[in-house]
Amino acid sequence: MYPAVGWVSSRHSNRGHSSDLIGIPVREVCPRSAKGVSFVRRLFTGTTLLIIALVVGIPFLLSRQIPARFFPGVTVVRLYLHQENKVVHMQLEDYLVGVVGAEMPAEFPPDALKAQAVAARTYVLKRINAAGVDNTLHAGADVCDDHRHGQAWLSREGLKKRWGTVRYYSYYYKVKKAVDETRGQVLVYQGELIEPAYHASCGGRTEDSEDVWKYQVPYLKSVTCPYDADPNPVQTVSYSYEQVDQALGTSLTAIPASGQEKITADFKLVEKTGTGRPKVLLIGNRQFPAVAVRDQLGLRSTRFTWNIEGDTVTFTTTGYGHGVGLCQYGAKGLADHGYDYRIILGHYYSNAEIIDTQKSK
After folding, report:
1. Can you list the pairs that 39-45 forms with residues at least 24 positions away whose Cβ atoms lie under 8 Å?
2. 119: Cβ–Cβ under 8 A, 6 or more apart, which residues?
3. 316 has pLDDT over 60
4. Are 277 and 264 spatial neighbours (Cβ–Cβ below 8 Å)?
5. DSSP letters of 278-344?
6. Of 68, 65, 73, which is closest to residue 91 (Cα–Cα)?
């Protein structure tokens, strides 16, 4: 008749406590059972709601562009956004996450990402600390988000489009960790911030700065790059003479193609760099720096050769970029072989030092 009392009583009788339950009415046993069920239900409901909040809420909060709060002593970057045609202000370390994510593949090893973070931090601080000199391209800004003007930058939404939603969160925190673990670290030479040039792939050896630009920099010297990990270092691209004329302002189409020897003479190598790359070319009757040919024709690298058939020029490039300073795929290769970011940076920036600006304050 009272199964609850009988079940509890028989359970406890084996322990010699059956007398404790004699005479206890059922109304005192059933409420305890009900309270237990109610507690379990509340616990289950609460846990379910918490899981839903975590799954839905955290990604929402992370994807929002939360207005930055600035505090005394915090470095602020004035960034010009080309697409929106405006200048925004953000904290330095937040800006660097967008730079490292834009400039280097997030799947690279942590020490390669750290090397990129230190280089990017040095680059922007050199411009912020330029004694109040205005950005001649974008008034009121220190830097912009276009890699052709310096270094690239992507917003969180831009990074999510690049990486995809599934990989976004793991990649974002991987990049952020690289930035956080190098916080305050910059590269200097004789006490001054360096010009931390970097590029994607050198093809085996970096270039001296004076062979690519018109100035010699003591820490931007040619070094071997034994572990350049670019998976597709060699590529070819073809242009008609008409396309070359349009890009370079030459007059190749006005020269009769009377034979292979005559046409080949329209492209001459005038000078090489120390690593054997073209430095100056004679195209038609005009001389061009190899850097200008690369930029105007959209070639991947200044390390190129060419072949002419009829009125078509085929360029074969090795590597990607100007070849000066840090080689990003080279940094990946070094990190894969166990070298940490300090050694990587010391290899590509000769005699430069890493200092911690936070400790020096």
Report:
1. none
2. 187, 196, 198, 325, 326, 345
3. yes
4. no
5. EEEEEETTEEEEHHHHHHHHT-SBS-EEEEEETTEEEEEEESBB--BSEEHHHHHHHHHTT--HHHH
6. 68
Give CA–CA dist 54/186, Å, rounded: 37
Q: Give me 122's structure tokens.
A: 């040095």
Beta strand ranges found along 18-102 (DSSP E): 76-81, 86-91
Instruction: Evaluate if pTM is beyond 0.85.
Output: no
Return the domain boundaries, the chain.
3-63, 76-228+324-356, 234-318
Reading phi first (left if > 0) and then psi (alpha if -120 to 50, else beta), residue 310 is in left
297 C-beta neighbours (distance < 10 Å), count? 16
Q: Contact at 8 Å (CB) between 91 and 76? A: yes
Q: Residue 22 and residue 159: Cα distance in Å, rounded?
A: 71
- Give 349's DSSP letter: S
- The b-or-e profile of 9-31 (16+ CB within 10 A means b, else e) is beeeeeeeeeeebeeeeeeebee
Strand runs labelled E in 45-151? 76-81, 86-91, 143-144
C-alpha to C-alpha distance for 262 and 256, rounded to whole angstroms: 9
User: How confident is residue 266, by pLDDT bands cut at 50, 70 and 90?
Assistant: confident
The pair of structure tokens assigned to 272 is 């090489």
Of 253, 121, 247, 246, residue with least CA distance to 178: 121
Q: State the number of CA atoms in the 13 A half-sphere of 357 facing the CB.
A: 18
Q: How far, in Å, CA of 229 to CA of 287, rounded?
A: 34
At residue 263 the predicted structure's pLDDT band, cuts being 50, 70 and 90, is very low
